[in-house]
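dumping this here so i dont lose it again. seq + smiles for pyridoxal-5'-phosphate
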Amino acid sequence: MARSKSGEKLALLGGPQAVSIDSSEQWKRPIEEEKRLVWELLESGKLSGSGAGLPKEFEEEFADFIGCKFCLTIDHGSTGLASAFYAVGMGPGDEFITPTAGYLGTYCGALHMGARPVFCEIDPKTLLIDPEDAQKRITPRTRAIIPIHMNGRVCDMDALLDIGKRHGIAIVEDAAHCHGAQWNGKKIGSFGDIACFSLQGINPGGKPVSGGEGGIVTTNNREFYERQLIYCHLHRTGIMEELTKPLYAALDSEVLGLKWRAHPLALALAKVSLSTLDYRNERMLENMEKIFAALQEIPGLKPVQHYPKSRPAGFYGGLKVIYHPEELGGLPATKFVEAVEAEGAPVSGPSVGHLEHLRTIFTQGFDLWGEGRGPLGKDFKPYKKGDFPVTEGLKDRVLTLRAYIEPKEGFLEEYMEALRKVASNYEQLL
Ligand SMILES: Cc1ncc(COP(=O)(O)O)c(C=O)c1O
C-alpha cells in the first residue's frame, strides 16, 4: 500500500480521490433459501401461532446456538425488553439505570410500567455503560440495570453481574446488536439474568440475526421465563404445561392477555439469517482487526476499546473511532469527516448517539398517565445539559467507520489510505 505523503492534495480541495474501488458490501444474503422457507410456510398455511412448528424450531436452534435454558421469540426487540422488565418485577415507583448514550426503545417498556429512568455515564474508552458510575446511582428503588451491548461491543459483564448480585438487582441486557458476541468464552444470553435480542431489519445492514421485525429473549431463570409467558404469550402452544408456579398455573391459556408473538414469516427469514451468522461475524471481526491495526498508525484516530474478555459481534451501526482533534491542530471532526468522505471513503459522525437525558420528556417531565401521575409527573426532577459531562464531552469525538463482511479486494487498504491521507494533510484544512 502506498503511504500518503504530507503535501498530497486532498480531494476536498481538488486533488485525486484516495478510494477508487467500490465501497459497497459484496456479501449477499441467501435469498433463494429465504424464498424456499417462506414459500413452505405459505403453502402450509402455518402463518400464525407460537410454541410449535417453525417458530419453535427457530427458538430451539437459537437456544442451542446461545447455550441457554429458555428462549422465547417475540414481535420486536423492544417488546422483548418490556417482557423482560415484567419478568424481573418492574413496576410503578421503581427505578432503572441505563446509559444516557442509549436508546428509548431499550427502556420504554419499563417507563410505561411506571418506572423512572436514572441515566448514567458511559466509559470514554469503550463507549459502553460505566459500571462504577451505574453503581453510584443505585437507590433502594432500583429494580434493574440495563446495559446495552452497543454495536455488538460487549459491556463489562463481570462488573455488572457482581453489582447486580451484591445489590439484589437484575441485569437486563439489551443484546439487540450482539448475536453471537461473547464474554470470557461464553455467548451473551447464556450466563446473565436475562438478555433481549432484536431481529429488526435484513442482512447485511440489519441486526446480526434479522427477519424484518422480531425479537428474542433468553434466560436460564425459570421464574423469569414463566413471567414472560404469562405476560404476553397468550395462546402459545403448550403454555399450560410450561407454567409450574401455582399462581401462574392457575391461569388459563389466555394468561394475562397480551399477544406479542413473532410472525412466523419473520422467523423463517431469521432462521436463514442465523445459519450465516458465524461466517459473517468471523469475517467482520477479521476485517475490523485489519482496520483497527491500520488506525494505530494514524494520528488523531483511536479505535474504541474492547474489554479483553469480550469478543464483539455483529457491528450493527459500524465501527467506532474516537477522534482526537488535539493531534490534528484542532481540526473540527466535521471537517475531518467531510474531507474523508470527499476521498470516497464511508465515514460518519461525529456522534455519540442520542443523549437520552436531553429528550424533552426528561428535561421538562411528561404527564404520562394524565393528572400528574406516572414516573415523569409532579415529583420528577428534570435532567439538564451538563448532567453527564463524560458522555456529553464525547458528542463531537466519535466517528463511525463501516464494518465489512466481504469488501472488494483492495478496498480496505484504500479505505485506510483515505483516513491516513486526510490525517497527514490536516494543515490544508486549517
Ligand atoms: C440498542 C437497541 N435496543 C433495542 C432495540 C429495539 O429493537 P426492535 O427495533 O426490534 O424493537 C434497538 C433497535 O434498533 C436497538 O438499536
